Amino acid sequence: MAEPKKLSFNETLKAFGMVAITTYKASPLAAITKIIGTIIGSAIPLVTTFVAAQATTYLAAGFAGDEQAGARAIWCVAATVLLVILMMAWNSLQNYIDQFTSYKINSAISDQLYEHFVSIDFWRYDDKDTADMFDKAQSFVSFFSRFFDAMARIIASIVSVIVALASLFSVSWWIGLILFLAIIPSAIVQLKLSRLQTEHWRKYTEARRRSDSISWNVM
């Protein structure tokens, strides 16, 4: 079997776009909630941190003798609690929607997979390359919804980092620079680990299939 061609950056972005489009067609509700969840998940923690910091500032001002600071601190604490409750409620709702839509997404992708493979020539069912491709396609189906969740988490993390860095740079440029330099090595390590996992998964397809078959026969 020929070595798989490495995707360019533009091809990778196109593949991500196809995943998003396929998911939206399978379950528009899942795509919409992911977009809303990405915005909420990246914004509320930062807003909560800011409000909590304001409450601390007002408490310090109250101890220093500011009579109006106490009431403001109480309002900030109440706002912090409300934001936490809203975040918990949204997470519960999103988890319910994710469980409901995950089945729809996996079913839709499975239908497309089997529709494609039943249309191939009969002799290819005994072809090793075709069997390897089918095995990879089945694994992709099982992880498709998780991959979509991972994309949403990545986008939320990127937005959170950008907003946090912008906030830190506006307060103290050198603190923001230190945080930015600390993020780079972690991102490089994570990227290399993901590539190593992908390469391992591609290299040992046949060994994994044999292992699954032996495990199934033993059971």
What attributes characterize this protein structure?
mainly alpha; 219 residues; elongated; 6 helices
What does this protein structure show overall?
By secondary structure, the chain is mainly α. 88% of the residues lie in helices and 0% in strands. The chain is elongated, with a radius of gyration of 24 Å. The chain starts with 8 loop residues before the first helix and ends with a helix.
Give the topology:
Blueprint: H1 9-26, H2 28-63, H3 69-117, H4 128-171, H5 173-203, H6 205-218
Give the tally of β-strands. 0
Percent helix range: over 70%
Mean pLDDT: 78
Give start-end ranges of low-pLDDT stretches: none
The arrangement of helices and strands along the chain is HHHHHH
Main beta-sheet annotation: none
Shape: elongated
N-to-C span:
31 Å
Look at the helices and sheets and give the structural class: mainly alpha
Number of helices: 6
Radius of gyration: 24 Å
Beta strand % = under 5%
Quick synopsis:
By secondary structure, the chain is mainly alpha-helical. The protein has six helices and no strands.
